[in-house]
Amino acid sequence: QVQLVESGGRLVQPGGSLRLSCAASGLIFRDYLLSWYRQAPGKERESVAHIGWSEDATIYADSVKGRFTISRDNTRNTMYLQMNSLRPEDTAVYYCQLTDGATIYWGQGTKVTVSS
Questions:
Q1: HSE of 30 in the Cβ direction (CA atoms, 13 Å)?
Q2: What is the average pLDDT value for the chain, to the nearest integer?
Q3: Residue 88: what are its φ and ψ, rounded to 5°?
Q4: How many CB atoms lie within 10 A of CB 22?
Q5: What is the pLDDT of residue 54?
Q6: Which of 50, 45, 98 shows the shortest CA–CA distance to 70?
Q7: CA–CA distance from 36 to each of 12, 73, 116 (Å)?
């Protein structure tokens, strides 16, 4: 059974940093493309960052480019989102997503609040 467990979300001040994690089990992690999405209150879920099978293949939303970094550790079956220079508009529930092109799995979400 596939399980995704997210962690790392919390309250942080503007300008601060957080690292989100998403640990996967029940699948062959290295075969999956990985993404982070977020959903702010009252808004639709939006794409934040994507990473391919290679750590060099990354794509970012314009709103986070230069501040966020997505990465993967295939030895730990875990993906990460390093978030720096956080802004109040980054406040949202963050979700990890894994797909092999045929099946999509979502994490349960972890809440990030950026506020002073």
A1: 5
A2: 96
A3: -55, -35
A4: 28
A5: 82
A6: 50
A7: 19, 15, 25
Give the amino acid at 98. Answer: L
Model pLDDT, residue 44: 97
Contact 81, 67 (CB under 8 A): no
The three-state (H, E, C) secondary structure of the chain, written as one string:
CCEEEEECCCEECCCCCEEEEEEEECCCHHHCEEEEEEECCCCCCEEEEEECCCCCCEEECCCCCCCEEEEEECCCCEEEEEECCCCHHHCEEEEEEEECCCCEEECCCEEEEECC
The answer to whether 34 and 96 have CB atoms below 8 angstroms apart is yes
Asked if 106 and 97 count as a contact pair (C-beta separation under 8 A), the reply is yes
Query: What length is written for the chain?
Result: 116
Looking at residue 55, its pLDDT comes to 79
- Give the pLDDT confidence of 21-54 residue by residue, as tens digits: 999 999 999 999 999 999 999 999 999 999 998 8
Angle at 58 between CA 54 and CA 62, to 5 degrees: 180
